[in-house]
Design brief:
Elements: E1 11-13, E2 20-22, E3 27-32, E4 38-43, E5 52-55, H1 59-67, H2 70-74, E6 81-82, H3 84-93
Parallel strand pairs: 4-6
Antiparallel strand pairs: 1-2, 3-4, 3-5
Length: 112
C-alpha cells in the first residue's frame, strides 16, 4: 500500500532497533485488553483494534524492545504487558522462509 499523496509506501519505526522500515516489512503488535497482565498479540493483517507498535519480525528486535520496555511506552500502557505469546509466535516463524506470518502477495490493512 502506498501513501496516496507521495506515491511512496508508508514507513514506520521498529521499537526494538529504532530503525525505520517500510510498514510491510514490520510486524504490528497490539495489547489484548482482556486479562491481567495484558498480553501482546501479533497483528499480522494490521486490522486489530487499538494502538499498535511495530517491530521487525526478528527475535533480536523483540529482545531489544522488551529490554528497553518499549512496548509499554509505544502502546501507552501503565499495566504490565506479557510478551510470552508474542515470543511463542516469533519462535514459530523463525523456521519459515519469506515474510513471517503473511503469504507473499497479500496486502495488509492500513490502520493509521
Amino acid at each position: 500500500m502506498e501513501d496516496r499523496a507521495s506515491g511512496r509506501p508508508p514507513v514506520r519505526t521498529c521499537i526494538g532497533c529504532r530503525s525505520r522500515a517500510v510498514k510491510s516489512n514490520l510486524l504490528r503488535v497490539v495489547a489484548d485488553g482482556s486479562g491481567s497482565p495484558r498480553e501482546l498479540v501479533p497483528d499480522v493483517d494490521g486490522r486489530l483494534p487499538g494502538r499498535g507498535a511495530y517491530v521487525h519480525p526478528r527475535s533480536e528486535c523483540l529482545d531489544l524492545a522488551e529490554r528497553r520496555r518499549a512496548f509499554s511506552r509505544a502502546l501507552r500502557s501503565e499495566r504490565t504487558l506479557d510478551v510470552t505469546g508474542l515470543r511463542r509466535w516469533f519462535a514459530g516463524q523463525e523456521d519459515q522462509p519469506g515474510r513471517p506470518g503473511r503469504p507473499s502477495g497479500q496486502d495488509e490493512g492500513d490502520t493509521t
